């Protein structure tokens, strides 16, 4: 019994390490074969439509609602200290530093990441990737790399739009609905939000999330067993793994970026 | 002077993990011939095609195509060779996000600098050869199984290859599509001067069109010959296969312990 448990544990560990190694090799192969994604940028633009543009609705609507909730909750708390004019700062900083990149990334992982995995997994299951190889076309260069760079480029843009919609939501609730002074709302926001420390760091975060989510989604699709269960399991793993990766990376990046700030 | 044999397989053994699939295959396909590789499901026929296409490497032996040892080629060499090969996958493997036209144009756009006008003419010629010029703008989801197979055939011959491999081209087709596909394979081989390798277990349809047949069983070639020789063969395996008999050298029952033992009756004999 104990021997079998140890064997199982050993097997799982070996499988895990082997898969990590394969994932790393896959990631470097994508980077090495990225020339096509830039030489024939039309391929990347096409994928940006599928991963980025088609994610716009969920990103914009979610951003608006998150901003509105921030407006309500922020006003409630700030009012206690008599500083409700700082609502703009609270909404903007929460969004550009944290909520924008993180929530947009989680939504991106669910909407676009799962779609990428399912598409690549089904292409493998229906032998489309093998057919491409037999036609002397490298699927990593032709199919995977354009999707990777499309995800990496789309993610910061989506996060920026999420934050912008969030600020709009905070404004609608705080200024238009509750009646916080409009001048204070915008002026305090303008003076408190630092372009380099807040906005650029937020963009950098979302770019890193874009790399992580898209790489995980592509790998899971490429490595999926060519069956219905295999593709469905890979899609689930994409959402779970990339969501956890986003949250873990967020902590690490935040620790590096904001530790010296007041 | 180029050899008369386009594909030469000598002493090839291959296994997935510890499970041997091929145990010493010798096979040749002469230029301009339609050669069939037959055998029951899971006997390693598709593995042979993958070895010829260089998707996997043999554990032992050599696979030579047009005189080049496939396993020894680097990626560039392999891709150069594959441009001279076409492959028809079992269910077509058409790119589902592209129209029929774009599927056939795919290789022309990837591997040539031809202007779009020339590509259009070539694609329509290939589609006309398989009778589907009128379906150029359809998407793969709008095609029947037989049509998808024909589009895949048009795509496979887009670059005028010297070798076309067919993986179960007759599987799941209605009788009309079956006849159409068989005739197309023969006609395209003759008119384009191709060599065709057909992996199939559809005996009757393939014997109508092939020049030579290899039977694979348990990882080795158990019989070979022309279509007439195969029809006349009295080898038990070939006889069972050609006549579709349920039991014979290929047993009906998967190996199991005694039936009576399984039923808890004891003292029984093997099923």
How would you characterize the overall build of this protein?
The complex is a heterodimer of chains A (262) and B (271). Chain A is mostly helical and 262 residues long. Chain A has one domain (33-258). Helix content of chain A is 87%, strand content 0%. Chain A is built from ten helices and no strands. Chain B is α/β, with parallel strands linked by helices and 271 residues long. Chain B has a single domain (5-233), classed as P-loop containing nucleotide triphosphate hydrolases (Rossmann fold). In chain B, 36% of the residues lie in helices and 24% in strands. Chain B has ten helices and ten strands. Chain B has helices at 45-52, 75-82, 100-111, 116-129, 145-156, 175-192, 203-209, 227-232, 236-243, 259-262; strands at residues 5-16, 19-30, 34-38, 60-65, 68-69, 85-88, 163-167, 195-200, 212-217, 220-225. In chain B, strand 7 (163-167), helix 6 (175-192) and strand 8 form a beta-alpha-beta unit. The longest helix of chain B is centred in the C-terminal third of the chain and has 18 residues, at 175-192. The mean pLDDT of chain B is 85. Chain A binds chain B through residues 123, 126-128, 130-138, 142, and chain B through 53, 55, 78-80, 82-83, 85, 87, 89-91, 93-96, 106-107, 110-111.
């Amino acid at each position: 019994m104990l021997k079998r448990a140890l064997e199982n544990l050993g097997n799982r560990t070996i499988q895990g390490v082997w898969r990590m190694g394969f994932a790393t090799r896959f990631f470097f192969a994508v980077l090495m074969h990225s020339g096509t994604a830039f030489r024939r940028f039309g391929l990347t633009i096409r994928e940006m439509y599928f991963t980025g543009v088609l994610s716009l609705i969920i990103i914009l609507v979610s951003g608006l609602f998150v901003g509105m909730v921030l407006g309500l909750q922020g006003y409630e708390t700030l009012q206690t200290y008599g500083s409700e004019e700082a609502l703009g700062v609270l909404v903007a900083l929460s969004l550009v530093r944290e909520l924008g990149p993180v929530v947009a990334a989680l939504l991106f992982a669910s909407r676009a990441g799962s779609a990428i995995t399912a598409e690549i997994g089904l292409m493998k299951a229906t032998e489309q990737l093998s057919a491409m190889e037999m036609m002397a076309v490298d699927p990593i260069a032709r199919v995977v790399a354009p999707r990777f760079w499309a995800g990496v480029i789309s993610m910061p843009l989506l996060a920026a739009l999420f934050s912008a919609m969030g600020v709009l939501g905070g404004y609608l609730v705080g200024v238009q609905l509750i009646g916080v002074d409009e001048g204070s709302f915008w002026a305090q926001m303008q003076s408190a939000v630092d372009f380099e420390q807040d906005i650029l760091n937020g963009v950098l975060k979302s770019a890193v999330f874009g790399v992580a989510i898209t790489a995980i989604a592509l790998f899971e699709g490429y490595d999926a067993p060519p069956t219905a269960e295999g593709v469905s399991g890979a899609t689930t793993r994409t959402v779970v793994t990339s969501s956890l990766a986003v949250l873990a990376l967020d902590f690490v990046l935040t620790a590096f970026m904001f530790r010296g700030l007041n | 002077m180029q050899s008369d044999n386009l594909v030469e397989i000598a002493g090839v053994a291959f296994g997935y993990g510890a499970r041997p699939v091929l145990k010493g295959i010798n096979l040749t396909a002469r230029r301009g011939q339609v050669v069939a590789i037959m055998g029951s499901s899971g006997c390693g026929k598709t593995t042979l095609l993958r070895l010829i296409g260089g998707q996997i490497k043999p554990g032992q032996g050599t696979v030579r195509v047009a005189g080049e040892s496939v396993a020894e080629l680097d990626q560039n060499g392999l891709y150069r060779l594959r441009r001279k090969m076409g492959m028809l996958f079992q269910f077509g493997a058409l790119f589902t996000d592209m129209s029929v036209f774009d599927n056939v144009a795919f290789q022309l756009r990837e591997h040539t600098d031809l202007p779009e006008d020339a590509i259009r003419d070539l694609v329509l010629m290939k589609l006309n050869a398989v009778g589907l010029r009128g379906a150029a703008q359809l998407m793969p989801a709008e095609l029947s199984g037989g049509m998808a197979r024909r589009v895949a055939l048009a795509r496979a011959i887009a670059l005028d290859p010297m070798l076309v491999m067919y993986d179960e081209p007759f599987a799941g087709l209605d009788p009309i599509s079956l006849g159409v596909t068989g005739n197309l394979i023969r006609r395209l081989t003759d008119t384009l001067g191709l060599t065709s390798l057909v992996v199939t277990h559809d005996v009757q349809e393939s014997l109508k069109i092939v020049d030579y047949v290899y039977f694979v069983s348990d990882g080795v070639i158990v019989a070979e010959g022309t279509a007439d020789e195969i029809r006349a063969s009295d080898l038990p395996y070939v006889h069972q296969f050609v006549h579709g008999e349920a039991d014979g050298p290929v047993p009906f029952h998967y190996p199991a312990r005694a039936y009576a033992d399984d039923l808890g009756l004891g003292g029984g004999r093997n099923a």
